[in-house]
Amino acid sequence: MDKKPNYVFNEYDRSPSRxxxxxxxxKRKLRKRRLTLLGIILLIILGYIVSPLSKVMxxxxxxxxxxxxxxxxxxxxxxxxxxxxxxNNDKIKDNLKKTGLVTKAYVTHNILGSVSIEVQEAGxxxxxxxxxxxxxxxxxxxxxxxxxxxxxxxxxxxPKISGFTDLNVVEELASQYASIPVAIRNAVSDIVxxxxxxxxxxVALILDDGKKLIVDIEGMKDTLSPTxxxxxxxxxxxxxxxxxxxxxxxxxxxxxx
Length: 257
Description:
By secondary structure, this protein is an alpha/beta fold. The chain has two domains: 54-121, Ubiquitin-like (UB roll); 124-255, Rossmann fold, CATH 3.40.50. Helices cover 31% and strands 27% of the residues. The longest helix has 35 residues, at 16-50. The chain is rod-shaped.
């Protein structure tokens, strides 16, 4: 019987060094492709960042009637250099609310660089003129100086504050007055500084019918709260009284002349 030939394979028929060289060449080629692709991506990103397309292209403002669009955009913190991809809607809302002029804000933006801001403006409850400057008191109790972009044309229709020279005292007054019952605020025509002996920080709330509520600024909201002073009931049962003076826990009434 013929014997089958024995085949012997030499393990060095393929050169290990050649395979290593080829493997390294493929790695270098792959690495080069990756670096090229990464470079292209970085160039695209850099080109986009430096182009106008990355910035806020337009801002649409809704709901404003007393505040100009320019003022709202300025207070929002948005500028011509703002990147719309990095916009923080909550931050814009906070910026607007901190002004005291906006009670609510809704903000949206899209990838095309368009921003939409819808605001709810704060109502005004009083105003004051001092040293050729005009200040308003918002419904949230903030005292704010009018600047360009605040187009409040109906100030004569709300109570005027007079007789004060210290803005710190007026700020306290604003905080307190905004918190008294709406029924009383609606009846007030003027707020006059009314110091008396032993009571320096007092005001007289002059009502539309000429009656006066004289009260300390500090603690005004508590003094005129419904639990301590039922305004409607007093106006009916004490219709012959023209001056209601609050001194501590006591209420003194002076009849009309």
